[in-house]
Amino acid sequence: MNDHVERMVLQGKVDLPFTYSAGKTASRFFVELRDHQRIMGKRCPRCQRVIVPAQLFCKECFVETDEWVEVGPEGTLVTFTIVYRKENHHPKEAPFAYGIIKLDGADTSMVHFLGETDVTKLEHGMKVRAFFSEERKGHILDIECFRPIS
Amino acid sequence: MGKRAAIIGTGQTNHCSTREDVNEMELVYEAATAALKDAEMTIKDIDAVVLANMELFEGRALHDMWCGEGAGALLKHSFKISTGGTSGTSGAISGYYHVASGLFDRVMVVGFEKHSDGNTSAGMALTDPFWDRHIAAAAIGNFALSVSEYMADRGVTEEQSAKVAVKARRNACNNPHAHLQMPDLTVEEVLESPILAYPVRRLEMCPQSDGACAIIFASEEIAKKSCARPAWVRAAVTRHDHIYLGEVKNRLTTMRSLREAAKVAYEIVGIREPLKEFDVAEIYDPLTYAEIAWYEALGFCKDGEGGKLIDNGVTHMDGELPVNPSGGVISTNPVGASGTIRVAEGALQIHGMGGKRQIPDVNLALVTGYGVYCWSDVLVLSSKPG
Questions:
Q1: Which of these, A77, A76, A79, A82, lies nearest to A117 by C-alpha position?
Q2: Which ranges of A22-105 does DSSP label H, i.e. alpha helix?
Q3: Which domain holds residue A99?
Q4: H-state helical runs in chain B
Q5: Cβ contact, residue pair B58, A18, below 8 Å
Q6: By Cβ atoms counted within 10 A, which residue in A75, B26, B316, B346 is the most buried?
Q7: A81 is a domain residue
Q8: pLDDT (mean) for B295-317
């Protein structure tokens, strides 16, 4: 008996609406970005680290952070990459660059876009500075990117 | 046979429809720190962490990654359990296994759900892509199918169902953590609430809540040293039935997975007359009709007599076997935490720390979990190690 049948492959797309509560700590971080173009961290009362972006509790010490600390807007580029391959779910159309930035005054680093995609102009350990978006909404992309300080 | 293990601490958030003051990881942190305080421990004392959550309801995958640090899992042995509604009880069973294996002495389990972040129908739309997804109306619709069959088969009435809703929301008033506290709710109001899917009405269904619940399990030596009245786990059984509704025979009427899990658990502990022997039950009641069906599946009465138990007040706070002094899932439902809450509430009753919802002299507590379309967990907790 010939068991060959047409192979069915279902196409699907699911509409997934979500509303993520940022919580009071991240909310203040976002409000500071939007209203004052300030990047805020919080200090752990036990280990004294300034954690950026600000967090409710220190994940190392498992205690609530207390003191708000403004950091940056300048910092050090810890590492970087430039993405060349285009994919649907990427946050930006390639090529784009992003990196890990340790802001001045912070003990942890944050991940963000770099406004420079020429690999010859990026160096580990170089100084970078935050550039804020014109239209800020209380979102991590209120920082448009970090650019090398020439 | 595993080593003895007991629950020595619990912690819950206050559950409500929207907790905008915290993100999901912070919600987990709140429950975890409350449990540590209750057990008089710090996070350093914990050897292992088990997380329980319903996948995709908050629009995030890999919850152990996003929320593990909230439970203090940083650089510790850690697992996630995700079995739909049973996640919370299965997580607790996993916590028990960790200690019963003898490999870990102090294990924290955190069940959590932040429903307000997401959309449960969207989450459930990511189930089987070939059959149900194109036809079934998620949890409520699928329950309605079984309720319709259960009513026809067993003659349970709308009034009996409404009485369960009233009992639950009134009990919830004694529980400071409960979401729906409705001291003045009446049978008439329940019956006047809109039909969501025939024959299920809005006030007969569980809510969607934000909440988390943490439990700390400990080995025998530690439990005896650090807790005045440990809640010993005497049995922990899980059973899964078919997943395609068309293949499950008389789902709610029979509830084969719950019946089987209870039978095995009762055999382990030596329980012959559950209604008489248990002092309290915290059962996972996703809707009113399910609670009545579970009475039958759990052997509290003969098949078809579940409605009489609620009519006669047998399962009320002052009845022979109080069921859900906490208000149950009908009153509070952060899904991944709902099962964990059942276990925590059962343990609280044995600890004697139930406050206004405490039943006097609880020595034996029954706890159940319900998940997906037809999965069941049963735990028996006792004041005696056995």
A1: A82
A2: 23-36
A3: 23-148
A4: 24-38, 63-67, 87-100, 120-124, 138-154, 158-171, 187-192, 220-226, 251-254, 256-269, 274-277, 288-297, 306-311, 328-331, 335-351
A5: yes
A6: B346
A7: yes
A8: 97
Tokens standing for residue B137: 């109306």
| CA gap B358, B366 in Å, rounded | 15
Q: Indicate the residue type of B155.
A: G
Residue at a domain's end among B161, B195, B226: B226
Residue located via tokens 């309290």: B280
For residue A40, the SS3 value is strand
ipTM of predicted complex: 0.86
Domain-located, residue B130: no
Cβ distance B117 to A12 less than 8 Å, yes or no, reads no
Residue B127 lies in a domain: no
Of B19, B20, B119, Cβ closest to residue A17: B119
The answer on B107 and B53 residing in a single domain is yes
pLDDT at position B116 over 90: yes
Are both B149 and B240 inside the same structural domain? yes
- Per-residue pLDDT tens over the stretch A46-101: 999 999 999 999 999 999 999 999 999 999 999 999 999 998 888 899 999 999 99
Question: Is position A5 within any domain?
Answer: no
Instruction: Provide the number of structural domains found in chain A.
Output: 1
Report residue B190 as tokens: 């329940």
Closest Cβ–Cβ partner in A20, A57, A60 for B117: A20
- Pick from A105-109, B53-57, B194-198, B279-283: least confident: B53-57
Q: Compute CA distances B339 → A97, B84, B97, B140, B287, whole Å.
A: 45, 10, 16, 18, 14
CA distance B87 to chain A (A): 22
Structural domains of chain B, count: 2
Residue B125 DSSP symbol: T
Which pairing describes strands A74-83 and B77-81: parallel, antiparallel, or unpaired? unpaired
Contact at CB, B24 and A59, closer than 8 angstroms? no
Boundaries of domain holding B46: 5-120+209-226
